[in-house]
Amino acid sequence: MKNIAIFASGTGSNAAAIMDRFIEYDDIFVSLAATNKPDAGVLDEAHERGVPTRVFTKKELHDEDYMHDLLLGIDVVVLAGFLLKIPPFLVEAFQGRMINIHPSLLPKYGGKGMYGMRVHEAVLENNEKESGITIHYVSENYDEGDILRQEKVSISQRDTARTIALKVQKLEHEHYPKIVEKLVRSLPENYD
Ligand code: GRF
Hints:
By secondary structure, this protein is an alpha/beta fold. It has a domain at 2-103 and 133-150 and 175-186: Rossmann fold, CATH 3.40.50.170. It has helices at residues 13-22, 41-48, 58-61, 64-70, 88-93, 117-125, 161-186; strands at residues 2-7, 28-35, 53-55, 76-79, 98-102, 130-137, 147-154. It has a seven-stranded mixed sheet with strand order 3-2-1-4-5-6-7, covered by helices on one side. The longest helix is centred in the last third of the chain and has 26 residues, at 161-186. It is globular. The structure holds 5-O-phosphono-beta-D-ribofuranosylamine. Residues 8, 10-15, 80-81, 101-103, 172 line the site of 5-O-phosphono-beta-D-ribofuranosylamine. 5-O-phosphono-beta-D-ribofuranosylamine (GRF) is lined by residues 8, 10-15, 80-81, 101-103, 172.
């Protein structure tokens, strides 16, 4: 049996897609949906599906004892639009077991401040012919961990930042839950 925690700060559409994938599994559970934003959409998505939630402050995120208690029994931490930087002790504790998704083909259009529509606007401004998603391990720097998977979409002359965002989001919902499952299934029974 394996347990997943999702961290999300926004609407939580990726979190919802991941929760939906595992809803009827009896060996993998989304056991926690956590956020730093008391009004984050992810909380409603989790409540609707009966997934336990937690709102924590930035200070609590950096508190080793607090996070140790919160993540007791969690095998994999999935970031899905989580906007705070993960403290080094957590990166270390979940080495190879914490992943993130970014709405561009990293290393392009990543790093601090590159999130949401800003990414797609920059892609459009630079006349890119393609964009996509990157699923990667979490490291101490934004968007820099080893890449697990990239998927691409092509961009046409008629695309806007909004249409690129929609295409990319479709890819996210299709692939992120599958990659999460793949990672969870690749873990040994005991890895302490
Ligand atoms: C996604 O585009 C993801 O790539 C990025 O944050 C966004 C989260 O969207 N890291 P949602 O809250 O899952 O809808």
